[in-house]
Amino acid sequence: LLCLLLAGDGTASETTGQPIEVSGSRNRATSANFEVVGPSATQDAKQVAVLCERWREKLQGYWLQTPQAAWSPKCEIVVHATKQSYLAAVGRGGEMTRGSSWIEFQKKQVSKRRIDLLGVGDLGLTALAHEMTHVIFADLFQGRQPPRWADEGAAMLADTLEKQQLHQRDLE
Q1: Vertex 150, ends 94 and 83: CA angle to 5°?
Q2: What is the DSSP string of 94-114?
Q3: Nearest to 75 by CA among 156, 134, 12, 19
Q4: Which conformational region is residue 97 in: left (phi greater than 0), alpha (psi within -120 to 50 degrees), or beta?
Q5: C-alpha pair distances (Å), 116 with each of 99, 107, 125, 127, 172
Q6: CA neighbor of 15 nearest in space, from 44, 48, 50, 55
Q7: CA 94 → CA 16, 90, 97, distances in Å?
Q8: Pairwise CA distance, residues 110 & 113, whole Å
Q9: What confidence score (pLDDT) does residue 17 get?
Q10: What's phi and psi for 116, nearest 5 deg?
Q11: Which residue ranges of the chain lie beneath pLDDT 50?
């Protein structure tokens, strides 16, 4: 049930439906909580910003129960058009991933939020909810790095059902 609540069909459709203000262009967009850079031929930065806002709302509602203030600093989202660009940004170990999050802390506060996504192919932005969960957990643990087992376990709950089945297969 939890995986259906969080992952569902890979969209963040169960939200309040409030209009989301986004400014910018197809390659660079800004919303209340996100700065999206998307030099991808297959992803529109403005649409990605809306999707990010919807996932933030859904995941915060699940993990934190109440809406939170706008993020400062905003979360930077980089949608990579090629695997080469993605690997250059995330480094070694990213060969088998489609998303990566980076969170920095200063004085028990989040000082940087960044999510890199490989936005090409049939899987598109499927890693967004997983990576967004890591960013949400940074707030949940109030400026401390969450325990890795809890952080990754929670993020896996936001994976698509297909991805969760792959994790189950690996476990067995």
Answers
A1: 15
A2: GGG-SEEEEEEEETTEEEEEE
A3: 134
A4: beta
A5: 6, 25, 10, 9, 30
A6: 55
A7: 34, 6, 5
A8: 7
A9: 62
A10: -105, 135
A11: 1-14
33 near 49, Cβ under 8 Å?
no
The owner of tokens 């695997």 is 83
Chain position carrying tokens 């129960």: 65
Neighbouring CB atoms inside 10 A of 32's CB total 14
Question: What does the pLDDT look like over 69-98, one tens digit per residue?
Answer: 999 999 999 999 888 999 999 998 888 889
Handedness of CA 145, 105, 69, 73 (dihedral sign): negative
Q: Which position has the token pair 């297959």?
A: 42
Cα 27 from Cα 35, distance rounded (Å): 11
